[in-house]
Write a structure and sequence with these properties.
Blueprint: H1 4-17, E1 25-31, E2 34-41, E3 44-47, E4 51-56, E5 62-68, E6 77-78, H2 90-96, E7 97-104, E8 109-116, E9 119-122, E10 128-130, E11 141-147, H3 170-174, H4 187-204, E12 212-220, E13 223-230, E14 241-247, E15 253-258, H5 260-265, H6 279-288, E16 292-301, E17 306-315, E18 317-320, E19 326-328
Parallel strand pairs: 3-16, 6-17
Antiparallel strand pairs: 1-2, 2-3, 2-4, 4-5, 7-8, 8-18, 9-10, 9-17, 11-12, 12-13, 13-14, 14-15, 16-17, 18-19
């Protein structure tokens, strides 16, 4: 049963947002005066979706109220009963069980662990939506294109400092003017952006032709961001990642972010122990404990351009491949 303070908080949010508790948003967690709510459809989570946070200080004074994200309109939600089961997706669950090296920072060593790579399965079982692909869904495009060039650019990349500052006028807020990041990327913009990625990569990494895959494009505060991953991934849980920032007016790469320094930091860690547990053995251990979960979530489907009911395949535990021990990921 909801406590009196929570009832008042919910009533205030309902008045301010015109959302209905339990149907359009629900409490996700509450701790030390912090209340976090997420968008839902009649109790089923939505991803990506709206997010509301309210913080009170020790005296009970309101110190923060934020409401951000996009709330899906009814026309974008394809309602249906959740029918898919864990048994139906077991082949996929086994496929998603990956052997990766997890860093233990306190001990400066790597652990060989079998863990489930989170993924969303549509209710009909026909398609799969990777977890990372639901970010920036409003304008994000899945590209999955190997970036190649015959000759590297001879022009140096002219970098521009990126400042994430944004000004919103009162008139824009009152009129609920759509944010520029919410507009879809057109075919013409996509073609120009991909060309900018090829040019930028040949400038920054002239010897890496064919070694990177352009995964996605999305808008972000006046720029287009291109996310790239290595063509041949490593065995570590943290993979090499590049983000290229493209000027959305001139369609040229103006800056880049590379997580290589973080990846190289792990090179000094003690190597992972020898693997003695097979993937099948690890899967059986997790399945017998009931740790592998399939929960309903409405997820934005990039091809259908609507929110469809999916099963979120996930597991909060992993199996140590060196000794068979089951470990909770949050405690590693």
């Amino acid at each position: 049963m909801r406590t009196a303070p929570l009832i008042r908080i919910i009533a205030w949010i309902e008045r301010d947002t015109e959302l209905v508790y339990g149907k359009q948003f629900q409490l996700s967690r509450h701790q030390n005066g912090q209340y976090v709510f997420h968008e839902c459809v009649c109790g089923t989570p939505v991803s990506p979706g709206g997010h509301i946070e309210i913080h009170f200080d020790e005296a009970g004074k309101l110190v923060q109220y934020s409401n951000y994200g996009f709330y899906a309109s009814k026309s974008l939600i394809q309602k249906e009963a959740f029918t898919i089961s864990l048994e139906q997706v077991e082949p996929l669950a086994k496929q998603q069980l990956k052997l990766l090296e997890y860093p233990v920072y306190e001990e400066q060593r790597l652990l060989p662990l079998y863990g489930i790579e989170e993924v969303y399965v549509t209710n009909d079982g026909a398609s799969v939506i990777p977890f990372e692909f639901i970010i920036h869904s409003g304008s994000r495009l899945i590209i999955d294109k190997v970036i190649e060039w015959e000759q590297a650019s001879t022009q140096p990349l002219e970098k521009v400092n990126i400042e994430w500052r944004e000004t919103v006028t009162a008139e824009q807020a009152v009129s609920s003017e759509p944010h520029p990041d919410s507009f879809p990327i057109t075919d013409a913009e996509q073609e120009k952006a991909v060309a900018a990625v090829v040019e930028g990569m040949s400038q920054l990494y002239p010897n890496d032709s064919g070694q990177w895959v352009l995964k996605t494009l999305h808008r972000h505060q006046g720029y287009m961001e291109a996310v790239l991953r290595e063509q041949a991934p490593s065995k570590r849980v943290f993979q090499r990642k590049l983000v290229l920032f493209i000027d959305a007016q001139r369609f040229v790469t103006v800056n880049a972010m590379d997580n290589l320094p973080f990846i190289e930091m792990l090179d000094d860690f003690q190597a992972a122990d020898e693997v003695v547990i097979s993937q099948d053995e690890a899967y059986v251990k997790l399945k017998e404990k009931g740790f592998i979960k399939l929960t309903p979530v409405y997820v934005y489907h990039p091809e259908q351009k609507k929110y469809v009911l999916c099963g979120k395949l996930d597991c909060a535990y992993a199996v140590n491949a060196a000794n068979g021990e089951i470990m909770e990921l949050n405690n590693i």
